[in-house]
Design brief:
The structure is a homodimer. Helices cover 44% and strands 18% of the residues of chain A. Chain A is α/β, with parallel strands linked by helices. In chain A, strands 7-6-8-9-10-12 form a six-stranded mixed β-sheet, with helices on both faces. In chain A, strands 2-1-3-4 form a four-stranded parallel β-sheet, sandwiched between helices. A two-stranded parallel ribbon of chain A has the order 5-11. The termini of chain A are far apart.
């Protein structure tokens, strides 16, 4: 296979001139460019992405940090981002921090070397300034790390409002929302704030209960769900992430509650986990596809040194009504 | 924070001597070692993993290639491997090929550079010699790529036999096994061979039907399941991967079949997807934990230049009996 040196020799120019033409990094006289392009055609030269990357000081690789690879929402989002990046000629390297701040910090340190051209941050355990100090193109996914960094995120407030509507239509009197830590800095927490706001305005009692999100032990979730429903027998509505929602559904049925007459359930995220159940679960769906497309679009702009017109990109969420609400 | 140079200055030795002590790469006189260790203590020197890696020509990073990050089995396995690697001081970079041979090849090319110290191959689209030509420590997960490369894999034959037992106990007369392409080179295909063998021996009719494994469109799977069950109304048993199994369960109930009297179902993999359902699904469980532990153990040996005592490591599978079989 012809190398960049063969092309340079054929065109009677220096190899670095060939690479300049390949990468469009500097002005090259039109006739020189023509000579090089002719030589490439004649030699059937296929630019090797990796070689091209080395010339450009680019790796052609983007990293994405996520809190858990096991979480169906993140694994689906990673898939969408990877597909989109691939379309644009980039590879994705995925780093999962297991929700641990030390791991997040260590990955960021590794990524400061020349392995990647840009970073997508689906994590949020560091302080704003730690993200801001990272000197490569970076985009945030669920955490607003201040004015230097763009963020692409679901419209979680709308998500909370859409869920509230369903609890009202189901005539609920006491709704529990299950989530991770009460973290106002994490954007997804806004679905709880919006839900509480709407339910309070309608005079519906409600309460936020924290459950660890990254255990992935379904029988454990089932136990917790049962305990909560026994402790609060008056509860007639629950909003929870897909897997925990499935646990509440199972627990409520075991306790003899009728769905949706005695008990309404809204699942958050709307991954395939909400679909596999025998009962069609009412879900708020985050569009991983749209988040992925927008994230890659913005990151490519940053990597090309372009200015962004705005900093925060809100992606619409929708509700799919199922059999678990009226 | 103290640097390696500060330590060298304090101990009155060259920086490379300090790094030799840190990495144990060469003999250093005991008194010199003591001086260096004292200086480290005094300066409260914390060796930076990355710096240490650069001295050792190691990155402290392992890559894992998988066919899909969305697949609950692979995402769970990646999680287990990552946790184990982290325990041992390594980071994991995950690359998902989307089942495409071109992507697999491109990732392998990237990984030939100095980004990673070793590679875990959870993919299987290339030819044996392409894997064998890779010149870093490599371990295979579900594909036996020939005598040069070690493989850690579930005992899929046992998985097939355990499933067959349940179909027999459920008095099935016609069992369908759903899978991806008929690929004898992929180890997981052995569960189908073993299932067919056992069912044939018992005079139970059976048939393998191919369904794309990486669509993740549950309503699509549901349609396919319905079509298959309508085309083969005599079918009274199905073995399929977790998500597809959920689709068959839903389709069978919609067609008015009684579970497990008219229809028995066995789910393969046994991820949390099999657990979230309202009905407890009988599952063959691949132990991602044990596969992860063994894989990391073997890879670390390879990276340390140790010889392996054997090449193939078979990990036990178990069956969890649920409500979908007799």
């Amino acid at each position: 296979m012809a190398s960049i040196r063969d092309v340079a020799k054929k065109a009677n120019v220096a190899a670095c001139t060939v690479s300049r033409v390949m990468n469009g990094t500097a002005n090259v006289a039109p006739e020189t460019r023509q000579k090089i392009e002719d030589a490439m055609k004649e030699l059937n030269y296929i630019p090797n992405e990796l070689a091209r990357g080395m010339f450009r000081q680019k790796s052609g690789t983007v990293a994405m940090l996520i809190p858990s690879i096991r979480h169906p929402y993140f694994s689906n989002l990673a898939h969408c981002i990877e597909s989109k990046l691939y379309e644009k000629g980039y590879k994705l390297m995925l780093c999962s921090t297991d929700g641990q701040i030390e791991r997040e910090r260590e990955y960021i340190n590794i990524l400061k070397t020349n392995i990647v051209d840009g970073v997508i941050m689906g994590v949020s355990d560091l302080e704003d300034n730690e993200y801001q100090q990272f000197d490569k193109p970076m985009i945030m996914l669920d955490y607003d790390a201040g004015k230097k960094l763009p963020i692409v995120v679901s419209d979680h407030e709308k998500g909370g409002r859409l869920a509230a509507e369903k609890f009202m239509e189901s005539q609920c009197r006491y709704v529990i929302h299950i989530g991770d830590r009460e973290l106002s800095k994490v954007e997804s927490y806004k679905c709880h704030t919006a839900l509480a706001h709407a339910l309070n305005a309608a005079g519906i009692e409600n309460r936020f209960i924290e459950i660890k999100w990254n255990e992935f032990d379904f029988s454990g979730y089932l136990e917790i769900a049962k305990t909560i429903l026994e402790k609060y027998p008056q509860v007639d509505g629950v909003m929870a992430a897909d897997i925990q929602a499935a646990a509440f559904l199972k627990a409520a049925l075991k306790l003899g509650k009728k769905i949706p007459d005695d008990f309404a359930l809204v699942s958050y995220d709307g991954t395939y986990v909400a679909d596999v159940n025998l009962v069609n679960v009412t879900s708020i769906i985050q569009s991983a596809d749209k988040i992925g497309d927008k994230t890659v679009e913005i990151l490519l702009k940053l990597m090309a040194g372009q200015k962004l017109t705005k900093r925060k990109y809100l992606i619409d969420v929708v509700r799919k009504d199922g059999e678990t609400t009226k």
